[in-house]
Amino acid sequence: MAVSKLASSAARLMKQGLLKEAALDFERAIEQDPKDASALLGLARLRLAQHDEPAARALLQKLVALHPTHPEALSHLARLDAEKGDARQLDLLAALASQPKAGYFEVVNHGRALLAHDRYAAAIPELERALQLLPGNAQTLTYLGMAYQGDQQLDRALRRYQEAAEINRTEHLPLQLAARVQLLQGHVGAAIVTLRQAILRSPRETALFREFASLCLMAGAPDAAMRAAIEIRLQLPDSADAIYLHGISAFVAGKDEDADRILREALAKAPDSAPVRIALAKVRRKLGDDAEARTLLEAAVAGDPTDVGAANDLAVLHLSRPGGAAAARTVLAEALKAHPDDTDVHLNMALALADSDKAQAVTHAKRAQASHRRDIREQAERLITALGGK
């Protein structure tokens, strides 16, 4: 299959990262010869790299119409369909990848499709084989990290993400994914450092700041979380989510009056937001205003009776008042229908039943003992002992 001069020029430009210039040369080559297979394939690869699936698909279909057995074109099309949920394409991808002369794209597309269908163990050897065909490819290393992570091989996943980040020093995704693995490993501090490096690579990526703020809150560093939230607000001044994150950070930092003001601003932007109502209710309770806290939580529960956060907080508020157990039980019953395994709901239901039905209270308290949180487990154990449930 002869390669035209324009297609060769475009391929060189593409390797240099000059995608706009490469696209122009590919398009000129196709204008001169609509059957230029190298130009069609090259431009399809470029559009895939730009995540422009419709344009890539159209080019690949033209190429397959000219060359019905073209392995790479068939592989790209099958992978796109597989990632949309068509599991039937996995057999075709496996067949293309198993051919003696299968190239990098046939193999990596098979690995990616397996990854998309959560077949992590099967994806790993295919992606490792793709890496042998194209050593040092950061994208393949990232996919490998995802496969290892899905297979619960966290150390190997982290290593692959870090290798990808080292090879491609401008892409933030490998670092973002590495931070998530470090968090799963319980290394919150390391995750914060890694995510900060990701932000330095993509300082306009607001999702990174949001994730960084959440990590900082988890690590007990609310001031750093506030700075991240403020950065998001500067980039997205009309975002209720950014304002909410700012308010939560202020609350965790102990700046209750600031949190109250900021969360009210968020509520004005998103008046039906349950998370904002719940957060503002926490602030109002901290400031001694249970009446407004109750109004906010009742509105959140009315909007979604299955919201465990709102239900639990409203139940706790009811339980803090004399004679409030019945109201707490009513609220918790709806949440428990939708979330029968939620240990927080079970603990609160046990507390709400303690004075009226000790046997049922013990049953719910025992369910609460399954919590991953030590404070919930210990509270449940104390309640079981107090109720004589052993």
TrEMBL record:
| Mapped TPR repeat ranges | 138-171
**The entry's keywords:** Repeat, TPR repeat
| Chain segments annotated as transmembrane | none
Query: What InterPro entries does the record tag this protein with?
Result: CellSynth/LPSAsmb/PSIAsmb, TPR-like_helical_dom_sf, TPR_rpt
Name under which the protein is recorded: Tetratricopeptide repeat protein
Superkingdom of origin:
Bacteria
Q: Which organism is it from?
A: Pseudomyxococcus hansupus
